[in-house]
Amino acid sequence: MAFDFGTLLGNVDRLSTSDHQSVVSINLFVALICACIVIGHLLEENRWMNESITALVIGSCTGIVILLISGGKNSHILVFSEDLFFIYLLPPIIFNAGFQVKKKSFFRNFSTIMLFGALGTLISFIIISLGAIGIFKKMNIGSLEIGDYLAIGAIFSATDSVCTLQVLNQDETPLLYSLVFGEGVVNDATSVVLFNAIQNFDLSHIDTGKAMELVGNFLYLFASSTALGVAAGLLSAYIIKKLYFGRHSTDREVAIMILMAYLSYMLAELFYLSAILTVFFSGIVMSHYTWHNVTESSRVTTKHTFATLSFIAEIFIFLYVGMDALDIEKWKFVSDSPGISVQVSSILLGLVLVGRAAFVFPLSFLSNLTKKTPEAKISFNQQVTIWWAGLMRGAVSMALAYNQFTRGGHTQLRANAIMITSTITVVLFSTVVFGLMTKPLIRILLPSHKHLSRMISSEPTTPKSFIVPLLDSTQDSEADLERHVPRPHSLRMLLSTPSHTVHYYWRKFDNAFMRPVFGGRGFVPFAPGSPTDPVGGNLQ
Amino acid sequence: MAFDFGTLLGNVDRLSTSDHQSVVSINLFVALICACIVIGHLLEENRWMNESITALVIGSCTGIVILLISGGKNSHILVFSEDLFFIYLLPPIIFNAGFQVKKKSFFRNFSTIMLFGALGTLISFIIISLGAIGIFKKMNIGSLEIGDYLAIGAIFSATDSVCTLQVLNQDETPLLYSLVFGEGVVNDATSVVLFNAIQNFDLSHIDTGKAMELVGNFLYLFASSTALGVAAGLLSAYIIKKLYFGRHSTDREVAIMILMAYLSYMLAELFYLSAILTVFFSGIVMSHYTWHNVTESSRVTTKHTFATLSFIAEIFIFLYVGMDALDIEKWKFVSDSPGISVQVSSILLGLVLVGRAAFVFPLSFLSNLTKKTPEAKISFNQQVTIWWAGLMRGAVSMALAYNQFTRGGHTQLRANAIMITSTITVVLFSTVVFGLMTKPLIRILLPSHKHLSRMISSEPTTPKSFIVPLLDSTQDSEADLERHVPRPHSLRMLLSTPSHTVHYYWRKFDNAFMRPVFGGRGFVPFAPGSPTDPVGGNLQ
């Protein structure tokens, strides 16, 4: 947290003035976040706006006000910091996503998600890098090395999973949500791995060995990050089940869950793994086991606390990006040639559009080949939505761009300044314009969903056959599943419905081995004379 | 939070290694906090230990391990930082204390609390300062100015309200809890005000005008800090009631409550008020109005979230103090004369004991004079407990001592180093030794409480007459109150039972004006077609 404040205390004289500037910043940010929440609430019914855009707009307006007050010298009160983003803001968002994700839907589409997230990001990375090399080399934007072009590819392949969460609705479009969001999580990991690989590898001579090393590195990172997340989740479940914290204090249960989740993220950072993947899987495991081992009030508390922390972090990020976008220092390098900045931004936006189209449609086709029933296939309209919903670029892109093109948030090179301003432009444009158009687009391309979800909630007697294909991936009830999924009798069945079969054996394993050890739904903690948990008891 | 990380990014090269040292620190701290929680849970039934002492011991052991690993060079991984303490750790603890305090008991004892907290702290400050001047001047400890002696008075007058919360139990000893804890909050404010006053005023010539100015300054700070806290609480209640956030999202309600509470603290810091008082009163107002305006799940969430955050912050502070205590750098200045350090620490401990005795017993006598019934009076055994329970010195003392005697956590002057090591010794000794002895002492001095509370919980039919004097100040139910408090008929009644009468008129005012505007218990938000809140409905 403020582990480095100590080094800054040298110039502090009095207690009450100590770091008064940071007190001012905190006040401003907290007040602005409150304003965003209130405005977001008032705009809830609005069909265009969402909270991200509100925060971006408020952030930009505040930036303008600060710019005017400071006489055109300064527009922001804090320098964009990767650590603030990666260590404090991203963990709650990704953990909450894992904690609240509909697990069945996520794992049923696991192969498609991996295809999109890993292979798709690689395709997008190659296309954007090659496009940047081909086009920018001919333009007068200063010296960029091969490493810079590859970094551009990685930066603009990172979709904004935070924004995706806001424009897609898990209940209205469950398949799309799990595909796009799941892809986003894997994509984040892939981009960061690619980016680190680019910075570490000697890029002057690339051969097959190097490429294999990269692939191996990615597989190692994916496997170890996932394993760490699962281990942290299981450990928390085991500790809480074994010691039965709820006997003495609800707060200890909540504290252990929060701290173990954060610890898994920080351990992954410590070992240079993909912390995003780790905390995502830790969230999934915690919601499957740990959450069912705690008392009823801890359950309510953790569910809402994680959601609230994630919500505050999201607003903070967009406010921050909006305020930072007007930083006069970055723009003064490109002010002599505004045309070039506009050109570069447009080219990058074009490459983002093409790069994403180049993998969504072919990979959807591939994925559809493995599906037998028409309901499981991804329709063309759904493909267009997937393509569109993943176009937004956000704080991950910003953080990577700052890391590649600046030192401590500042740059003196013209080419670097152009890349920074272009990244800001792409982030703002894609978030605001693509973001604004996503909700209406979904309504046009997939008109049945909104209508349908309303029907489901108002008329529970709607004919089953009509809603089953959709409900199938929303319902997360194990009891339901046991009824619907037939026992696979033969190898032929395993081949025809692999995900159902895998799921069946997973459930058997879960019930026979995992739950007795780690708890989970229906588990009632044993303690002599303890009050029986009402919800746990009901479900057993 | 990490608003200053940006300035540290200059020496960062790769994304994953960015500030790797702080990643290591965070991992270690989070893991240690988890360990403290688990050990604290296992020691719950123990009659001596509490979580603070566990954390102090674990912190010291970790310090020893780090000292051995680093070859005797270093024992801590972070420098003690006032900002970390005052900006991030203290607000959740004090807010939660205000939020969970039994309001009726607190306000009924308000005059006694103010007497102890303000006048008592001043008496203690004068005695410790005069004692330090008288004794230390004769000892060979280096040059200390008059301002340093007065600072010593302020530093060692600050009781540790965090530790008090852990050794006293609100349900077992409600009167003592509200007196000692309420005093602790006012005391914190008084010490910080005194400390700031000492640093700002020209101490070479003190006259009556200066003294009056100091008193005026204190009264202004107290009034304005309280007003700000009340205003922030009422604003949050009004916004949530008016806009009815629960209609769309529980998370917005929780977020607004957390952010408004934190904003009140930071605003007080911004205007150089006593942020501790502000956030304490904001907690009281929020639990009286705002908390009743939100949905049922928000109520459960906020209650446990505030408690959990406070719990984590407390453990963190003690861990931190324990680890910092072994900092080799501070001890090397006094290593040539260990006798002097022991002498100074013993003298300070003695002054703390005398300084507290000098106000607890006389002021209790004064307070008893105004009470008519023997139950309302503070018995001698209770006075001893109050004296004892407020002897612990904690992180506030540490923070003030670092502020006065170091620059950025380091010092080169021998006298200053001695004061720092003595402060650490006093804090460790008072927390561990006095802390360990508080639970048994309460059991000896006030034997009926433990027994009684067990009787109440197991036998709800215990004769009323026996438990009424104790239950009277625990029960916080308004319905109960309306029955028990008679309508005051005359001025004589106001004079004989002032607190009851004030409370009666406050309830009338609250019901007639405040609740219709700000909500509160029994309020059901109006929204067309909204689901009626079950708890709000039941209580109406």
TrEMBL record, chains A, B:
It catalyses: Na(+)(in) + H(+)(out) = Na(+)(out) + H(+)(in); K(+)(in) + H(+)(out) = K(+)(out) + H(+)(in). It is found in: Membrane. The chain crosses the membrane at residues 23-43, 55-72, 84-101, 113-137, 218-240, 261-286, 306-326, 347-366, 386-405, 417-437. It comes from the Eukaryota. It is a multi-pass membrane protein. Residues 31-442 form the Cation/H+ exchanger transmembrane domain. GO terms for molecular function: potassium:proton antiporter activity; sodium:proton antiporter activity. The keyword Protease does not apply. Keywords: Ion transport, Membrane, Potassium, Potassium transport, Sodium, Sodium transport, Transmembrane, Transmembrane helix, Transport. GO terms for biological process: regulation of intracellular pH; sodium ion import across plasma membrane. GO terms for cellular component: plasma membrane. This is Na H-antiportor. The lineage of its organism: Eukaryota, Viridiplantae, Streptophyta, Embryophyta, Tracheophyta. The gene is PhPurple.
